[in-house]
Specification:
The complex is a heterodimer of chains A (115) and B (113). Chain A is 0% helix and 54% strand. In chain A, a hairpin with a 2-residue loop joins strand 7 and strand 8 (74-79). Chain A is built from no helices and 11 strands. In chain B, a hairpin with a 5-residue loop joins strand 4 (33-38) and strand 5 (44-50). The relative contact order of chain B is 0.33. Classes of the chains: A mainly beta (115), B mainly beta (113).
Chain lengths: 115, 113
């Protein structure tokens, strides 16, 4: 079975540019989560969706960050404009509430470097 | 509020020695608890989970964890460390009735010859 798919795996961009990260959750999962991981702050939950609807975006750092989930099989995290402090690994994860276990399955991550 | 505390940001063991990674939780309701492993340049992978069934939970790669309510602990163990176990390990707890998880700060396991 295909796991969570993220693209690109690596992104290098210049400050001020727009960055779009993409995620395809596991088929049939009803929750999707976006995380950011840095050495300084560890793993942070940015936003999560249930059935394509954003439930909690309190972790989104600034208005420069936005996330969408237009359908059950696709989500994007956009940063506009990007800044060097946005450099991090961004993970997408999905879960199935009906399964009752609440475990999340993570993608391989996108390593973002903003110069 | 539900939270987890991982004691020790770095743990070093010799190959073949016992691995013990500590996790204590805080939860106002019966918790769902998880251990994840992260290998370099990879995402987090579920090792095992506790969902109020058996208190001793067996996971992948020979790991297991025991839920102890009296100690509010969920420590991860493996009888004999292997070099391939070197990674970062995260304990997590489900936040209340939501589907969010709260992750600990992680413990980096080093395995030496």
């Amino acid at each position: 079975d295909a796991g969570v798919i993220q693209s690109p795996r690596h992104e290098v961009t210049e400050m001020g540019q727009e960055v779009t990260l993409r995620c395809k959750p596991i088929s049939g999962h009803d929750y999707l989560f976006w995380y950011r991981q840095t050495m300084m702050r560890g793993l942070e939950l940015l936003i999560y969706f249930n059935n394509n609807v954003p439930i909690d975006d309190s972790g989104m750092p600034e208005d420069r960050f936005s996330a969408k989930m237009p359908n059950a099989s696709f989500s994007t995290l956009k940063i506009q404009p990007s800044e060097p402090r946005d450099s991090a690994v961004y993970f997408c994860a999905s879960s199935l509430a009906l399964a009752g276990g609440y475990e999340q399955y993570f993608g391989p991550g996108t390593r973002l470097t903003v110069t | 509020a539900q939270s987890v505390t991982q004691l020790g940001s770095h743990v070093s063991v010799s190959e073949g020695a016992l691995v013990l990674l500590r996790c204590n939780y805080s939860s106002s309701v019966p918790p769902y608890l998880f251990w994840y492993v992260q290998y370099p340049n990879q995402g987090l992978q579920l090792l095992l989970k506790y969902t109020s069934a058996a208190t001793l939970v067996k996971g992948i790669n020979g790991f297991e964890a025991e839920f102890k309510k009296s100690e509010t602990s969920f420590h991860l163990t493996k009888p004999s460390a292997h070099m391939s176990d070197a990674a970062e390990y995260f304990c997590a707890v489900r936040r209340g009735t939501a589907s969010k998880l709260t992750f600990g700060t992680g413990t980096r396991l080093q395995v030496t010859l």
